[in-house]
C-alpha cells in the first residue's frame, strides 16, 4: 500500500489523504487513518467488499459493555453496515487481483468524505468502472451515507449487490450483543434492534437502499434474514455504457442517546425509523452537502489553522490532526470521554486515559472550550468511580481510574497483557493499580481550563470539587519516610511505563504536590469569595479537616532535586542506579516495542531505558519549577535513554527541544510525531489512531513553534518558527475572547476579536492591547 498525501490540487491541495494501490496484507492502516466519525460514532474504513485480515468496526461512544465477567467493560463493535458483496457475471469483486487499474482511495479532510475508484477487469475480460463514496454525518450525528456507482465500460454485465446490516461481528471474538429483532418494512426499510448483554443498551440500526440502473429503479430486492444478518440483494443487467447506482443511507441510534431519555423501546424505534425515512427522502448528495457545511462551520472556519511551509506535508498533517480531533470527541454528551484510540479501533477498549487531559484537552481548552468543558464534566461525573476506587484501595477522596469507561464504573484497566518472553506467562498489567498520576493530571487539567477560560460557573459546579477531592486522595496516599523525614509516594508507575513499582517518581510527586497546593489555594479563595459553595463542599468533603492535613504535609512532600554534580533529576529513587546499555538498535527501530524481542518487562525495570517522556512532561507543564540549565542537563541525559515506544512521547520532546532552542531537532521530532499515523510504518495504526499524539501535534505547533504557554494565569507567546515555515496562523480562546494569531519570520500579530483588553508576554516584555498587537521578532528569536 502506498500512502499519498500530494494528490490534492487546486482547492483540494493538502486536504487529501490517499492510498494509490491496494494490498490485502496491509489493511489496518488505511482503515484507521481514513476512519470516519462525528464523536457520536466512529466507522473504520474497511472496504465494501471483504478481505481476510480486515477489521470492520463501528463504535458508538459511551455504549460500554462487559462481554463476560473476566473481561473489562469495552466499547462493543456494533453491526457492520458497510459491507457489500458485489458480483459481476457471478464473479466476486476482488481488487487484490492484478486486474485492477487506477485504484485510488481518498479521504478528503475538508468535507470528510471517503471515496474509492478503480477499473476492474473480470476474468472474462470485461472492464467495469466502480466508484464508492461514504461519510458519517457531522450534521445529523446518527447518519451514515454511502453510494456506489458502476459503469460497464466494454460489454454488458450481470450485476448482483448484496447489502444490509450485518451483526455477525465481535470485538476480536468477544460477543457483546444478543441476537435481537429483525424486520424489513415495505421491502425497503431494514431494521435491526439488538441489545448489549450486560449493560442492556438497545442499539437500533435502520438502513435503506436506492438502486437504479440507467433510469430504472430496482425495488424488488431478494430479502434474506439469517442469524444476526439482514441483507437485500439487487440484481440487474447493465448494458455497455450504462450506469448503475446504489445509495445506502443508514441511521444508528441507541438507548443511551440523550434525546431518547425516558422513552420505551418501541418509541425509540419508531423515531429512529422516521429519521431514516426523512434522510432517505433527501438522498446522499443533499445529506453530504449539509455534512460538508457542518465541517466548514464547526471545524475549518472555527479553527483557522494555516501553515505556510516548504514542506506541504506539514499543512496536511495539521489538518489531519484537526480532522481526527473532531471525529474522536464525543462533544454531544458530557457522560463520555475520548478513547485512547478514538472511535477508530478496538485498541484500549474505548477507554480514556491521561491522554485526554495532558495531550488532547489543551487543544479543546484553547480552541473550543465548550468541548473541553464537556470532557471535564465527564471527569466530574467520574468522581463516582474515582471515589469507589479510592475506597477499595483504602484511601480517601477521589482516585481516578487509569482507564475509564462509563463514569460510574471506576477502574477498567485489564489485568493481564503480553507474553513474558522469559517465563511464557502473561505479564500482569500494573497500571490500573499503581499508575496513579492520572488523579493529579485531572486536577491539573481543571486548573488549566479555569485559567484559560475563566469559567467560574464550571468551577462552582464541578471544578473545585474535583480539585479538593483529588487532593484528599493524595494526602491519604503519602507515606512518611523516617530516613528522609519526608512524605514519599512509593510503589507507583510514572509516565514511563518501563519502570514498574518505583518509589518517588518525580512527575507523580510534583503533580501530587501541585494538586494539594492548588486545593489549599482554592480552599482559602473560595471560603472568602463564595461561602455558599464552600460550605456545601465542606460538608461533603470535610474540607476543614482536610486543610489541616494539607498544611501539615505540603512542605514535607519529597520533590526530587537536581544533583549538585550534574544537575540530573532522578526520575525515581532507583533509575540512576540501573544498568546503562547501548540502545542504538532500539532508538533506530522501524517500529515500536522491538525491545520486547530481547527483554521482558521485568528486565527492563533494571535498565536505564524509558518508554516515553517522563521528566520532560514535568518540565513542560511545570516549567517554572526548574531552571533552563536543569532542563538542558536532563534533556541531554534522558533523551538518549528514551526510545519513544509510546506515541505520547515525541510531541513532548519536540516542545522541549524547541524551548531549549534546538529548532532543527524540534522540527525533526514534529515530523516523526506526524508520521506516527501518517508515516510509512504499515502496522502501527492497526488497533486504531494514536489520539494523544494527534493532540500532541497541535501542541507542538501552538505550544512549541508559536511558543504559547499559560503561566500563573497569564498568557505568553515566544514564537520560534521552524526554518521551513514562513507563516503560521491559528486562533485561541483566552478568557472568553477569541484571539487570532499570525506569526511570520519577523512579526507576531495578535487580534483580539472582541476588542477586550488582553495582557500578553512576548520574550519577556509585557504588552497590553485591546484590538491589535504587532511585535517585531528580532533575528534569532525564531
Ligand atoms: C502509554 C500510556 C498511555 C496509553 C494509552 C501506553 O502505551 O504508555 O502513557 O496512556 O498507552 O495511550
TrEMBL record:
User: Which Pfam family, any one, appears in the UniProt record?
Assistant: Glyco_hydro_65N
Keywords, in A-Z order:
Glycosyltransferase, Hydrolase, Transferase
Per its UniProt record, what SUPFAM superfamilies does this chain match?
Answer: Galactose mutarotase-like (SSF74650), Six-hairpin glycosidases (SSF48208)
**Which InterPro entries does this UniProt record tie to the protein?**
6-hairpin_glycosidase_sf, 6hp_glycosidase-like_sf, Gal_mutarotase_sf_dom, GH65_N, Glyco_hydro_65_C, Glyco_hydro_65_M, Glyco_hydro_65_N, Malt_Pase/Glycosyl_Hdrlase
Q: Does the keyword Glycosyltransferase apply?
A: yes
Give residue ranges for domain Glycoside hydrolase family 65 C-terminal.
708-768
Family the entry assigns: Belongs to the glycosyl hydrolase 65 family.
Question: Which named protein is this?
Answer: Glycosyl hydrolase family 65
Q: Which organism is it from?
A: Paenibacillus segetis
Amino acid at each position: 500500500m502506498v500512502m499519498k498525501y500530494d494528490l490534492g490540487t487546486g482547492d483540494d491541495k493538502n486536504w487529501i489523504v490517499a492510498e494509490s494501490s491496494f494490498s490485502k496484507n496491509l489493511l489496518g492502516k488505511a482503515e484507521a487513518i481514513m476512519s470516519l466519525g462525528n464523536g457520536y460514532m466512529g466507522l473504520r474504513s474497511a472496504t465494501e467488499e471483504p478481505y481476510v485480515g480486515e477489521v470492520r468496526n463501528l463504535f458508538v461512544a459511551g455504549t460500554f459493555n462487559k462481554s463476560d465477567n473476566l473481561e473489562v467493560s469495552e466499547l462493543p463493535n456494533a453491526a457492520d453496515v458497510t459491507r457489500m458483496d458485489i458480483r459481476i457475471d457471478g464473479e466476486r469483486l476482488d481488487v487484490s487481483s492484478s486486474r485492477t487499474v487506477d485504484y485510488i482511495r481518498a479521504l478528503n479532510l475538508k468535507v470528510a468524505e471517503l471515496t474509492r475508484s478503480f477499473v476492474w477487469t473480470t476474468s472474462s475480460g470485461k472492464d467495469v468502472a466502480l466508484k464508492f463514496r461514504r461519510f458519517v454525518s457531522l450534521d445529523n450525528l446518527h447518519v451514515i451515507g454511502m453510494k456506489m456507482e458502476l459503469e460497464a465500460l466494454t460489454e454488458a454485465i450481470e450485476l448482483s449487490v448484496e447489502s444490509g446490516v450485518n451483526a455477525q461481528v465481535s470485538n476480536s471474538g468477544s460477543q457483546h450483543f444478543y441476537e435481537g429483532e429483525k424486520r424489513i418494512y415495505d421491502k425497503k426499510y431494514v431494521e435491526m434492534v439488538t441489545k448489549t448483554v450486560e449493560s442492556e443498551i438497545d442499539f437500533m440500526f435502520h438502513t435503506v437502499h436506492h438502486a437504479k440502473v440507467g433510469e430504472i429503479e430496482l425495488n424488488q430486492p431478494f430479502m434474506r434474514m439469517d442469524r444476526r444478518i439482514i441483507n437485500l440483494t439487487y440484481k440487474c443487467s447493465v448494458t455497455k455504457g450504462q450506469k448503475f447506482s446504489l445509495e445506502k443511507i443508514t441511521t444508528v441510534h441507541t438507548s443511551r442517546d440523550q434525546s431518547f431519555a425516558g422513552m420505551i423501546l418501541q418509541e425509540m424505534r419508531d423515531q429512529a425509523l422516521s429519521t431514516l425515512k426523512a434522510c432517505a427522502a433527501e438522498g446522499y448528495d443533499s445529506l453530504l452537502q449539509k455534512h460538508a457545511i457542518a465541517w466548514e462551520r464547526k471545524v475549518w472556519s472555527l479553527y483557522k489553522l494555516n501553515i505556510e511551509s516548504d514542506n506541504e506535508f506539514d499543512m496536511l498533517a495539521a489538518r489531519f490532526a484537526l480532522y481526527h480531533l473532531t471525529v474522536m470527541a464525543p462533544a454531544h454528551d458530557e457522560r463520555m470521554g475520548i478513547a485512547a484510540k478514538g472511535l477508530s479501533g478496538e485498541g484500549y477498549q474505548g477507554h480514556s486515559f491521561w491522554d485526554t487531559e495532558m495531550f488532547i484537552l489543551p487543544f479543546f481548552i484553547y480552541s473550543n472550550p465548550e468541548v473541553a468543558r464537556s470532557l471535564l464534566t465527564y471527569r466530574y461525573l467520574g468522581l463516582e468511580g474515582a471515589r469507589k476506587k479510592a475506597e477499595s484501595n483504602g484511601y480517601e477522596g477521589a482516585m481516578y481510574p487509569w482507564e475509564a469507561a462509563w463514569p460510574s464504573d471506576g477502574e477498567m484497566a485489564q489485568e493481564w497483557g503480553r507474553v513474558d518472553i522469559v517465563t511464557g506467562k502473561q505479564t500482569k498489567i500494573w497500571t490500573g493499580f499503581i499508575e496513579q498520576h492520572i488523579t493529579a493530571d485531572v486536577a491539573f487539567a481543571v486548573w488549566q481550563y479555569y485559567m484559560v477560560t475563566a469559567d467560574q460557573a464550571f468551577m462552582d459546579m464541578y471544578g473545585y470539587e474535583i480539585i479538593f477531592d483529588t487532593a484528599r486522595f493524595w494526602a491519604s496516599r503519602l507515606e512518611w519516610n523516617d530516613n528522609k523525614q519526608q512524605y514519599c509516594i512509593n510503589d507507583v508507575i510514572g509516565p514511563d511505563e518501563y519502570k514498574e513499582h518505583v518509589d518517588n517518581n518525580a512527575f507523580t510527586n510534583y503533580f501530587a504536590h501541585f494538586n494539594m497546593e492548588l486545593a489549599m489555594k482554592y480552599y482559602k479563595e473560595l471560603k472568602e469569595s463564595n461561602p455558599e459553595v464552600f460550605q456545601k463542599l465542606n460538608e461533603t468533603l470535610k474540607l476543614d479537616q482536610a486543610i489541616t492535613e494539607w498544611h501539615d504535609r505540603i512542605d514535607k512532600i519529597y520533590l526530587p532535586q537536581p544533583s549538585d554534580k550534574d544537575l540530573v533529576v532522578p526520575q525515581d529513587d532507583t533509575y540512576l542506579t540501573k544498568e546503562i546499555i547501548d540502545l542504538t538498535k532500539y532508538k533506530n527501530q522501524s517500529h515500536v516495542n522491538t525491545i520486547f524481542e530481547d527483554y521482558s518487562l521485568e528486565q527492563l525495570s533494571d535498565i536505564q531505558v524509558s518508554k516515553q517522556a517522563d521528566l520532560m512532561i514535568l518540565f513542560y507543564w511545570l516549567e517554572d519549577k526548574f531552571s533552563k540549565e536543569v532542563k538542558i542537563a536532563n534533556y541531554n541525559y534522558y533523551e538518549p535513554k528514551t526510545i519513544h515506544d509510546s506515541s505520547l512521547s515525541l510531541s513532548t520532546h519536540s516542545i522541549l527541544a524547541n524551548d531549549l532552542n534546538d529548532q532543527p531537532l524540534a522540527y525533526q521530532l514534529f515530523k516523526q510525531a506526524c508520521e506516527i499515523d501518517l508515516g510509512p510504518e504499515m502496522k502501527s495504526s492497526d488497533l486504531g489512531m494514536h489520539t494523544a499524539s494527534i493532540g500532541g501535534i497541535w501542541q507542538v505547533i501552538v505550544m512549541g513553534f508559536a511558543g504559547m504557554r499559560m503561566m500563573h494565569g497569564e498568557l505568553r507567546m515566544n514564537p520560534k518558527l521552524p526554518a521551513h515555515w514562513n507563516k503560521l496562523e491559528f486562533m485561541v480562546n483566552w478568557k472568553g475572547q477569541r484571539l487570532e494569531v499570525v506569526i511570520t519570520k519577523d512579526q507576531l500579530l495578535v487580534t483580539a476579536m472582541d476588542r477586550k483588553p488582553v495582557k500578553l508576554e512576548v520574550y519577556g516584555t509585557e504588552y497590553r492591547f485591546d484590538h491589535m498587537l504587532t511585535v517585531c521578532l528580532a533575528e534569532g528569536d525564531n
